[in-house]
Structures are given as C-alpha cells and as structure tokens.
Amino acid sequence: MGVFKKQQLKEIAFGLERSGKRFLWVVRKPMITDWENESSLKEFELEDVLPEGFLTRTRSKGMVVKNWAPQPAILGHESVGGFVSHCGWNSTLEAVVCGVPIVAWPLYAEQKMNRVYLVEEIKVALWLEMSGDGFVSADAVEETIRQLMDGEEGRAVKERVLEMSGRAKAAVKDGGSSRVDFLKLTRPWTDQ
C-alpha cells in the first residue's frame, strides 16, 4: 500500500491485533528516515519494525508477509472480508471486481479524491480517520476494521460492493459495455 515510518507500522499492528479479526498484512520496508543508514535497511526483519511479540501473539489470527504478495489472487479468494487500500485505481478496481469492501486510506496525490468517491458516491468503502499529517492511530484501525466486518455500515458496504462486482463482471463479458467499447476502439487498428 505504501511505505510507512516504523511508528505507523506499530500503530497498524496494535489496531489489527486489538480488532480480533483474521488478517494478511504485507509489510514493506519502512521509510529510510527510521534507520541510521540505507545499508541497514537492505534486508529488514519484521521483528525490527513490529511491536515486540506481535508475530507470536497474532500467529493464530494473522499472517505477516515481507514486501510483496499477489494482490489479485488474494482479493479473489472467498475468505477475504475486507481490504485496506491506498485508494489507487488499480487496487480499487481489483477489490471491486472481486466484491471485496474497502477501508480507504489514501496516501498520495489523487487518492484522497478517490476516497471521497469510493466512500460517498459509490459507497464501496469506509473512511479511515487520520490526522492532518496522515497518521492513523491503532484505535482508528481497530474501529474501522470492526465496523467493516461487523457493523451496519460495513454490511451496507459489503452489499454495495457485491452489486458493483456483478456490474463490473458483466461489463467485461462478451456483449458487455467495456468489451464492446474496447472492440470499437481496437477494430480500426486490426482492419487494415
């Protein structure tokens, strides 16, 4: 989703743990400002950036992966109940097509505008509260995840994203609007 400072990673960890929900969390290398020099960050260890004992305490509920995971394959798995996203369009489209509700945590550029659209207009995401500088507390992580998984707002978002998923899948099938428009665009290139 992005590169965070170690303190933000710790807040995420505490929020995930306190939520009591199962999770898969991909942790990327923390920001270089948190380390003495760049060479010390080349091969980081999860234990160096997460709260002490977190991996042991959450072993039965969660899985933490370093750096990368196959996001479309994960989102497409039936056990996934939610997705914390930076609100970039690729991730958003992957989540919507898979019918996965979103916790919206924008980091850069147009992502803040995307969040407004996802939460307020198409209603496939919940708003994650953050401070003016973008910091998110453990309480906000915990509360938003619980709301998504168990709350009324979360149920409404799940229903809406499933509806949108059906529409997205229909659009790319033979005769669907996206397929038809794509063929209109590319046909002149191949009819020469």
Give a verbal description of the structure.
The chain is mainly alpha-helical and 192 residues long. It folds into 2 domains: 69 residues, no CATH class; 115 residues, Glycogen Phosphorylase B (Rossmann fold), CATH 3.40.50.2000. It is 50% helix and 10% strand. It has 9 helices and 5 strands; from the N terminus they run H-E-H-H-E-H-E-H-E-H-E-H-H-H. It has a 3-stranded parallel sheet, with helices on both faces. It has a two-stranded parallel sheet with strand order 1-2. The termini are far apart. The mean pLDDT is 93.
Any low-confidence stretches, pLDDT <50, length ≥5? none
What is the count of DSSP helices, taking H or I runs of 4+ residues? Answer: 9
What is the terminal separation in angstroms? Answer: 43 Å
Strand content: 5-15%
- Kindly report the spatial arrangement of strands forming the biggest sheet: 3-4-5
Structural class: mainly alpha
Please write the string of helix (H) and strand (E) elements: HEHHEHEHEHEHHH
Q: Tell me how many strands there are.
A: 5
3D shape? globular
Give me the Rg, rounded: 19 Å
**Biggest sheet, in brief?**
3 strands, parallel
CATH architecture group name of the largest domain: 3-Layer(aba) Sandwich
CATH class of the largest domain: Alpha Beta
CATH topology-level fold name of the largest domain: Rossmann fold
